[in-house]
Amino acid sequence: MSHNSEFIIHPGKLSLNDLNNIYKNKFSKFSLNKESKYFIDASVKNVQDLFSQKEVKAVYGVNTGFGKLANTRIQESDLSILQHNLVMSHCTGVGNLLDNNLVKLIAIIKVASLGRGYSGVRYELLESLLNLINHEYYPCIPTKGSVGASGDLAPLAHLVSPLIGVGYVRKNDQVITAIEALKECNIEKFELQPLEGLSLLNGTQVSTALALKGLFKIQDVFEAALVAGAMSVEALNGKLEPFDSRIHELRGHKGQMVVAEKIKCLLNEKNQSSEDHNSGKVQDPYSLRCQPQVMGACLDQINSIANILEIEANAVTNNPISFSDTKEFISGGNFHAEPVAFAADILAIVCSEIASLSERRISLMVDSNFSGLPPFLVNNSGLNSGFMIAQVTAAALVSENKSRSFPCSVDSIPTSANQEDHVSMATHAANRLSEMSDNSSYVIAIELLSAAQAMDLKNGFQASNKIKKVYQEIRNLVPFYEKDRYFADDIEKVKNYIFQNSFLNFY
């Protein structure tokens, strides 16, 4: 797929593959499909028609205050100011800025949600947000400040504030004012109409994009971990019986069967009759033998969460929702990001378990009593420490991930003077995933390096062609560990390789 290609947004029809390609910068231009304009215009008219009635009823966020101030009626002459003030007051985010690719994904998901025509936001406003993104002016969105209900209010305020000439954008890592960006993109700043500010701010798009980013990275780590696990079985003369499909069919979990088949595929040419193979062993430790059970459970959760996040990325999550066909405005709670919070919490556990299993295999390889190889995978041990502290690094990262795996969704805290008395914490839950997946990728990198080293130390190892291919890829990046050297750069190279290359190519 060409980076020069255009992506046309069809609201409600974003696929997981679309979202992945958007985040990974596969498109250079975005536009909203013309068919959605009819539904968007009808939704805007529904708001306008509200004021043509003889007695204008109170509609939350249209002619009332917000949150605890929902019962405060606002004069019609102040309705545009109300929406402007809402965006201004909600720009309270703090911390480091979200990366540009993530901001792009948030913007596209937001446009897709509002583009379904239930939000009362003008087509031209959505086009202008896309115009900024197309010119690579990315609104500056601080990382922290959302509790995941009533939507991602603060970060979404930072996303849309440039459209009213407020705040900052980033282009080529340079931060400039929103006014400068609008001028360079030939965009007139907007005076928000009734409901527009609220619809722009309500929603789960930041939480969802953060969770999607975590999902995409964890999927890469998962595939690398399967390959690393198979390579470790090879390096440690592990038994193949645990990957026999008959075992896994009897249990019936799809992920377990898939993982067993993938590992068996990687090892399918292994010489089971070699003299030293499985010498004296009846069973292998769990970290080798139970990979289908543990990684299969992880895969089932990853696939389930992918489905949840795909649904959420296409959802209408603002409040109130404008139903133009029945001329209604219905207040609800679609902005509550509990589905995203649960998904992110489970992904955190999955990410932690992938690394935990990998670290145990590293430990087996550096233990000469188990592996039969030189202590800590280096010749002249004692003078050389070899992989001793690389395993310590892996242990440290695994421990950090464990401590970050506590579910955020159970940590609700009331806001808005107890009007919003239960929140999801989805944004916090999802934001940790990227760093956790980085931690896990370093652990997998250390395992890949350990397994390659173990193979070299076996002197003329026999392996399947697929494992040899993995081994050669690692050796193309990092040479054999002959004696102690500065090792951090080697780990970094293989970690980057995990995210830059598809490990699916090895099957």
From TrEMBL:
It is an enzyme of class 4 (lyase). The keyword Lyase applies. It catalyses: L-histidine = trans-urocanate + NH4(+). PROSITE patterns: PAL_HISTIDASE. SUPFAM superfamilies: L-aspartase-like. GO terms for molecular function: histidine ammonia-lyase activity. It is found in: Cytoplasm. GO terms for biological process: L-histidine catabolic process to glutamate and formamide; L-histidine catabolic process to glutamate and formate. Keywords: Histidine metabolism, Lyase. It comes from the Bacteria. The keyword Lyase applies. Belongs to the PAL/histidase family. This is Histidine ammonia-lyase. It comes from Silvanigrella paludirubra. The lineage of its organism: Bacteria, Pseudomonadati, Bdellovibrionota, Oligoflexia, Silvanigrellales.
